[in-house]
Design a protein that fits this description.
The chain is mainly α. The protein contains two helices and no strands.
């Protein structure tokens, strides 16, 4: 059922976004401590963690975007078919 796919994608996306928000706050706090400690290696590792979190968020966002675009395309295709059939009568 299409609605179940949508609900599942939105749940996964919602969890990913809230996890990203929590992780962002943690990373900012760690970055502050690493800067104060003068730890460039720790900061580099932190940046990799941030990049991984951003890639995960982007992947989930693209899933939602692709899902919505597919649904729109299906609807528009069907409406065009109905309009075409109507125009032939």
């Amino acid at each position: 059922m299409a609605e179940e796919d949508t609900r599942r994608l939105l749940r996964v996306f919602g969890v990913t976004v809230t996890s990203f928000e929590d992780r962002s706050a943690q990373l900012l706090e760690r970055a502050t401590h690493l800067r104060q400690a003068g730890d460039p290696d720790g900061l580099a590792a932190l940046m990799k963690e941030l990049a991984d979190a951003l890639l995960e968020l982007q992947a989930r966002w693209l899933e939602i975007t692709d899902h919505i675009t597919l649904r729109q395309r299906q609807l528009l295709t069907e409406l065009a078919r109905i309009a075409d059939e109507w125009g032939r009568k």
